[in-house]
Every structure is written in C-alpha cells, then in structure tokens.
Amino acid sequence: MARSKRTLALSLLLIVILGVFGFTAPLPFTVISPGETVDTLGKDAAGAPVIQITGATPQPTEGQLLLTTIRADDPDTEHHLSGLLDAWFDGNEAVVPKKSVYPEGKSKAQIIQQNTQDMTESQDHAAVAALNYLKLDPNQVKVKLNAGEIGGPSAGLMFSLGIVDMLGTRNLTGGQIIAGTGTIDDTGKVGPIGGIEMKTKGAKKSLATVFLLPKEECKKAKAAAPGGLRLVPVETLPQAVDALMALQNGGKVPSC
C-alpha cells in the first residue's frame, strides 16, 4: 500500500512538473491569421497601379483579382502552451510549426531579406509566364509589379492573371471578386504555398466568391474554407484562365 501511495504521489508530481513546464517553456510553434488582400487589377495604398505596363495599352478591367496573404507572429515571439491553446480554439487563427513559416537558423533580418527576394523572383516569373501565355515579346512589353511590403512567392498566380486580364482580349472576372494563391514559374506551372486555411478565410472576408489554388492544396483548403467560397484547383496558368472563363460561360469548372 505504501509503495502504491508513493507511486501515485510521484506520478502526480510528474504531471504537475510537466504541466508547469508546458505552460512556461517556449514551444517551436507560431500563430498565423488571415492577412491583407490586394487587388492586382487595382492600386496600392499610395494610389499607384499594382501592375504597371509599358509598351502596350492595358485594356479596361472590371471585378477584382485578389492575391491573399497570411499574417504571422514576429519570428522572435516565444509562444507557450497557454497562448497556443487560445489560438488553437480560435477559428480565425492557426497554430503551425515555426519552421513552416520561418526557416531555422536565420535571423529576423535574414528572413525579411529572403521574403523580399522571393517576392521579387515571383514577380519576375509571373510576368514571364503571362507574357508567354499571351505570346507577347518581353523585350517590347515591360511589366512592373508592386506588392508593397508583402513578401514571399505565393502571389505569382494572381499577378499572372492580372497581367493576362489587362493585356488579353477577355475579361477574366466577369465583374466578380476572385481571390487566389499559388506560386508560378516561367512556364506557367502553379506550385504549392503555405497557410492555405487562413488565406481562404481572408478571401471570404474580402467578399470573394471564388478561390483559385494549387491543386495539391485541395485537401487542406476544403477542410477549412468558409461557406460560400468556391474552391477552384489549378495546376497551370492556362488552366486558371480556362476555369475563370468556364465560370462565366457555364462550362465545366474544376473543384476540390
């Protein structure tokens, strides 16, 4: 009996120690939430066009093509179990491994520099992919993209669609608010991104009714997307354009 009591006491003490440690020790997670959306067919906060074109005359556009973002805690923020539990049960926030947002072993300054570089490269790829799709000479038509302080590569697809809308012969939105996310390369291939769950919520908050996303992100998006937001998975820029036209014409539209 005495041994049983000692064992129980030790077990309870261990639970208390682990509980205190869990609530006070920093954990390798961070909290993300829906970030801002930017209309690639519109203007930035300073009133300058998000997409600036020289060497060709942009066509009139209507509707919106929104790039979506996430907001993540400062990389230097330390989270403890109590705070993470609050975020875990908040439908407008998500708890994710810190390394999925911030590369390990890099300082805050290095992370900012990398995100800026990723955005610059993403813009270059988006312009090349769009001009190739439109069969326009990049030596004659120049595209300058402005995303403000947004970093990372995930705006590529929406930038490309904005360029195609402005320089092509067809309106892609049908006057609707279309949101989306996805990296893009020079060939127009759409790649995966992070934070898809929060990006769908940000799109809905900005009144989007359609959300374009990389096909391989379907499972995560479907599990978290708010009601009334139509998920349209794509693998390439041509597929994205075709899907948007099908939405307007009553054609077959991909779905998750």
Automatic annotation (TrEMBL):
Gene3D superfamilies: 3.30.230.10. It comes from the Bacteria. InterPro entries: Lon_proteolytic, Lon_Prtase, Ribosomal_Su5_D2-typ_SF, Ribsml_uS5_D2-typ_fold_subgr. It is an enzyme of class 3 (hydrolase). It catalyses: Hydrolysis of proteins in presence of ATP. SUPFAM superfamilies: Ribosomal protein S5 domain 2-like. PROSITE patterns: LON_PROTEOLYTIC (PS51786). Its EC number is 3.4.21.53. Keywords: Hydrolase, Protease, Serine protease. The active site is at residues 154, 199. Residues 146-247 form the Lon proteolytic domain. Belongs to the peptidase S16 family. This is endopeptidase La. It comes from Yinghuangia aomiensis.
